[in-house]
Amino acid sequence: MFSWILLLIGTFALSFIAMARVKSAISKYSQVPAASGLSGAEAARRILSMAGIDHVEVVCHNGLMGDHYDPMNKRLVLSEENFHGRSVAALGIAAHEAGHAVQDKVAYGPLKWRMASVGMVNLVSPMIYIVPIVAMFGLIAPKTALTAVAIAFGVMMLFQLVTLPVEFDASKRAKVILGRTGMIAAGEEATGVEKVLNAAAFTYVAAFVSSLGWFLYYLLPLIGASRD
């Protein structure tokens, strides 16, 4: 029980630190205007055009931290702040999401794997909460419950693992294209993009570490029991 509480606290702390870093970086560099004068939406559209992508719609949504690329509907979604914003942070985030659209066009392997695994993740995620409750009422054997939860966390851990190269590659593409085209100037602007995207990347690292920790927590007792 103590190890469970320790792991729970650790994962919450890691997530809190990751999100705090992102918010801090975005808050700082949202105040730094890009010398190019472009908005996030304009930068995204320019990157898509340069990549020969004319079938992806860049849309605005009313909310924060909801920026994403939707490969199923071919939409690049930016928060209102980043869609209209002309800051270093807005351009960095918009370019990152455009990087995902470029990945989609070139059939980037890890992105295809992540897309293919979304259905499985959605299927097993409820098991993490449902199985322990069912086991509590004695409806399934403890070992069966442990195995089911371990499998669920294993699938989620692999999903987070595949997500890492997808996010790192999109950020790399964003930094290169922003600098090469002059949408972001060298110096403070380039440093700002680097810090914003690195902070965002850390959230995915934190998610992977957390899922790995929970996977091992449920897997190791099964391995120990099999040796007895």
Describe the structure in your own words.
This protein is mainly alpha-helical and 228 residues long. The protein has one domain. Helices cover 74% and strands 6% of the residues. The chain is built from eight helices and three strands, in the order ααβββαααααα. A three-stranded mixed β-sheet has the order 1-3-2. Helix 1 runs antiparallel to helix 8, helix 4 crosses helix 7 and helix 6 (127-136) packs antiparallel against helix 7. It is elongated, with a radius of gyration of 20 Å. The protein starts with a helix and ends with a helix. The model has no long low-confidence stretch (mean pLDDT 93).
How is the largest sheet built, in terms of strand order? 1-3-2
Number of strand elements: 3
Gyration radius, in Å: 20 Å
Task: Give the CA-based shape.
Answer: elongated
Low-confidence stretches: none
Number of domains: 1
How many DSSP H or I helices? 8
Q: Roughly what is the average pLDDT, rounded to an integer?
A: 93
